[in-house]
Amino acid sequence: MTISIQSVAKSFGRFPALNGVSLEIADGELLALLGPSGSGKTTLLRAIAGLEFPEAGQILFDGQDMTQVSAAARRVGFVFQQYALFRHMTVARNIAFGLEVRKGAGKPSKAVIQDRVEHLLKLVELEGLGGRYPSQLSGGQRQRVALARALAVDPSVLLLDEPFGALDATVRKSLRKELRRIHDATGVTTIFVTHDQEEALELADRVAILNLGVIQQVGTPAEVHDAPANAFVCGFVGEANRIEGEVQAGRFSAGDIVVPAPGVANGAATAFIRPHELTRAKTGAGGLRLTAERITPQGPVLHVEARTADGRRLEAAFARAGGLGFGVGDQVEVAVERAHVFGA
Amino acid sequence: MTSIAERPPAGVRRPLFRRRSAIPGFGLTLGVTLAILSTVVLIPLFAVALKAGQQSPAEFLADAFSQRAMAAYRLSFGAAFIAAAINALFGLVTAWALVRYEFPFKGLVNAIIDLPFALPTAVAGIALASLYAENGWVGALVKPLGWKVAYTPLGVVVALAFIGLPFVVRTVEPVLRDLSADVEEAAASLGANRLQTLVRVILPALAPAWLTGFALAFARGIGEYGSVIFIAGNMPYKSEIAPLLIIIELEEYKYAGAAAIAVTMLGASFLMLFVINLIQAWARRRA
Q1: CA distances from B77 to B68, B108, B156 (A)
Q2: Which residues of A touch B182 (CB under 8 A)?
Q3: Is A72 helix (H, G, I), strand (E, B) or coil?
Q4: Contact (CB<8Å) B287/A87
Q5: Highest mean pLDDT: which of A205-214, A325-334, B146-155, B228-237?
Q6: pLDDT 10s digit of each residue in chain B, 287 long?
Q7: What are phi and psi of B105, to 5 degrees?
Q8: Rg of the Cα trace of chain B?
Q9: How many whole angstroms separate alpha carbon A22 and alpha carbon A28?
Q10: Which of A23, A54, A93, B277 is a good FRET partner for A130, with 20 to 30 A between their CA atoms?
């Protein structure tokens, strides 16, 4: 199902949570709403679910206006950060809830409900745990139950509010892969909220980045990472050295650091240089001279914290293969391969 | 010296109830608990049982299960049960209103709910009796319907309902407050309407606390004396409660007879509270 959000605005008291947000979500897409806390991402998700009602704008499901339709009538699956399972019901009854509350002809028979529960338990890999109570499950298992419960009603869209926020790092990683697998298996349009950029970039087809109730950029993970639309996105997505300086005639300079800045107006500006965009330069080739202060291995790269001659801190990442050939306290010359420069 | 020698080495000592624990004060708190429980509750109750035991079994049965005593038990337990049920219903609604909504004079309403705790029960009894008497404000209103409240078993229920109201409100309130909005939103997003959410999600979550409130109100009702005697009319076989029967026996110097009725009430009350506790433990295990 396609979802169209058109200039939606919502405020809590005098605090504006959403400032005219517009967003198109394609059928079967897995979209991440990424932003810092207070950016309005959860409010937007709740507005799509019908748990909040916007003051202005429209929300369309397949072209149909749903702005004022109640949550119960929207047929959305919602997964909460704190699971929100019904503690007095078994796992199976939790999953069956959405089907059991249906009335009249829409209510499936007992056997159908049981089949559906079994199918979903299998899908979220909790076979045989249908008789347990939520208190007997681990955090990761509870969130799987919540996911199965949301999917039971065959939702037109699956909405997840920081679904992995309360879980530890290992469980979070494996559940992330699960969600992608389940999404691909069911094909349901899915929107999830996160403040974890790694999660958003790894999991989503497209990422919508919010700040201060406004969408900053919508794009594929590669687009938002490699071609950030503005300084906020550049600083928020991916690691970057943030350098304040000045642009004169298409060149950004801040002390020793000089990078091209085509098309940026003269005046104060901010440059972002990703650690992997600093590369080793031959000594004497006119590179940027750095003094290494700390070297830590991070997977396939060595992370180097260093300082320029005029005392600016820079972080670089060099391939581990073959060794660095320098240590802490040594000087090294680097070239800036690429920088994103945004005028103030 | 021998006492020191007889003491086992420090590492070997394994007292019956005690495990090594990071939470200090086990010995002190358990000691105080047992001391209080003994002096305030167990020893007096034991004395009652002892008094009742001075009779022969036949005398005991005759006193404890006389027709008049049976009628009194029925009224005491029956009225307490009905009053507790009424309180369970209205207490839940009251707690709901206090937790879920903001309204003017909420603080005042909150304080009024506790009033039955503080008011001398005799004052409550006299006030209720004059209100519900045939010429009282409320009594006059219901008289055309053919209802008589004061000086009938109905009056007993009214008095006990008054006495027991705070119990249900105060036990349900904190649990309702802690119930997260998430759960209700989850139910709504799964397509449940308000009634289904209430019946299938909220009430089961409240059930253990609700039952506790009911049990407290019920227990209070069984033992209540002060307010009831003013409104009950105290007619033997009709509107005479068991605690009053005990007083009557005492006034006639039939101490053993009074003790026999007391022990019977005690046994029945204990049994009921025990069963309610079991149900509660069962409900709590699942929550």
Answers
A1: 14, 33, 11
A2: 80, 82, 84
A3: helix
A4: yes
A5: A205-214
A6: 444 445 555 555 555 655 667 778 888 999 999 999 999 988 988 888 888 888 888 888 888 888 898 999 999 999 999 999 999 999 999 999 999 888 899 989 999 998 888 888 889 889 988 888 888 888 888 888 888 887 888 889 999 999 998 999 999 999 999 888 889 999 999 999 999 999 999 998 888 889 989 999 999 899 888 888 888 878 888 888 889 989 998 999 888 888 989 999 989 888 888 888 888 888 777 65
A7: 60, 30
A8: 24
A9: 19
A10: B277
Enumerate the residues of chain B whose CB falls inside 8 A of the CB of residue A45.
none
Name the residue among B183, B188, B204 with its Cβ closest to that of A72. B188
All residues of chain B having their beta carbon less than 8 Å from the beta carbon of residue A72 are 188-193
Q: Say whether residue A86 is in contact with chain B using an 8 A CB cutoff.
A: yes
Hey, are the CB atoms on B286 and A98 less than 8 Å from each other?
no
Shortest CA gap B185–chain A (Å): 7
Query: Tokens representing A27?
Result: 């059928």
Q: What are phi and psi of A213, to 5 degrees?
A: 75, 15
* Interval A165-170 mean pLDDT: 85
Name the minimum distance, in Å, from the CA of B181 to any CA of chain A: 9
A335: which 2 tokens? 């070239």
Structure ipTM: 0.82
Determine how β-strand A278-280 pairs with β-strand A331-336.
antiparallel
